[in-house]
């Protein structure tokens, strides 16, 4: 089945432990660190719009994109009461197409790992670069190979009123692909209906991400350990990248 179609209605229940407030705080810390005051912010792979809503409440004009129409339906409902509702668009990261430019772009919760080959990665970063103003920040986090390796073989279950879910994780060290299968069971007519989704992600070494950023017009400003401002010393857990768009001459705001 299409990724995040069956999951859309349950996604917020299944991810109620995600620290969205900490993600919003990390994004604003990095804006301050690099002296950025963006008014228009693009969020890629926005999902059900939890982070989108928090950033909009903090005063940013949001454009939010996701490949799943079902997730976007939930996101629109969640953000419909905001004074300035975000603009939601159904687009693949690799085919991003905006009407104008933005001053910052964010992509969180390891969505970059869903770009499963280097061509996709380069294409997505190129599209962000195309619509990002010179000097604008591109912020994203990734799961590292070490974190995916630690998840190999893990199983988890969750349940709520009228539903049950089971997750199974697998890791292939040679291809650096992580495949996790989600089985959802919905109570229906005295029994349960089963729906299954398969999710595939790739773990990229840090140097590959840095190379692709450089190839697509970005200057790397920092790589941080998780949701902190501590420079990443090793590839463990999550890494949070901050990159800034260069001018065609290789400068940022006219400076080397």
Protein architecture, described:
- Pfam families: Methyltransf_25.
- The chain has 256 residues and is of the alpha/beta class.
- The protein has 7 helices and 11 strands.
- The strands form 2 sheets. The chain has a 7-stranded mixed beta sheet, with helices on both faces. The chain has a 4-stranded antiparallel beta sheet with strand order 6-7-8-9.
- The longest helix has 14 residues.
- The radius of gyration is 18 Å and the shape is globular.
- The protein starts with 10 loop residues before the first helix and ends in an 11-residue tail after the last strand.
- The mean pLDDT is 92.
Spell out the key features of this protein.
256 residues; alpha/beta; seven-stranded mixed beta sheet; four-stranded antiparallel beta sheet; globular
Largest sheet: 7 strands, mixed
Separation of termini?
Answer: 47 Å
Mean pLDDT: 92
Which outline best applies? globular
Radius of gyration: 18 Å
Q: Could you give the order of strands across the largest sheet?
A: 3-2-1-4-5-11-10
Helix coverage percent of residues? 25-40%
What proportion strand? Answer: 25-35%
């Amino acid at each position: 089945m299409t990724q995040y179609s069956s999951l859309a209605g349950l996604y917020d229940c299944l991810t109620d432990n995600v620290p969205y407030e900490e993600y919003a705080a990390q994004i604003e810390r990095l804006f301050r660190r690099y002296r950025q005051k963006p008014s228009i912010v693009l969020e890629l792979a926005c999902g059900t719009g939890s982070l989108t809503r928090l950033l909009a409440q903090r005063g940013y004009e949001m454009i939010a994109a996701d490949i799943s129409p079902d997730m976007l339906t939930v996101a629109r409902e969640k953000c419909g009461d905001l004074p300035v509702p975000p603009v939601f668009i159904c687009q693949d990261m690799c085919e991003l197409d905006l009407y104008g430019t933005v001053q910052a772009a964010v992509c969180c919760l390891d969505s970059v790992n869903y770009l499963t080959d280097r061509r996709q990665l380069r294409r997505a970063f190129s599209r962000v670069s195309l619509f990002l103003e010179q000097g604008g920040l591109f912020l994203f986090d990734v799961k590292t190979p070490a974190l995916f390796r630690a998840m190999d073989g893990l199983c988890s279950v969750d349940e709520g009123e009228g539903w049950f879910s089971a997750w199974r994780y697998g890791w292939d060290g040679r291809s650096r692909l992580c495949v996790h299968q989600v089985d959802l069971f919905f109570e229906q007519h005295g029994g349960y209906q089963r729906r299954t989704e398969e999710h595939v992600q790739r773990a990229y070494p840090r140097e590959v991400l840095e190379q692709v950023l450089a190839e697509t017009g970005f200057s790397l400003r920092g790589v941080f350990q998780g949701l902190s401002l501590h420079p990443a010393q090793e590839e463990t857990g999550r890494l949070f990248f901050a990159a800034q768009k260069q001018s065609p001459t290789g400068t940022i705001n006219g400076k080397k």
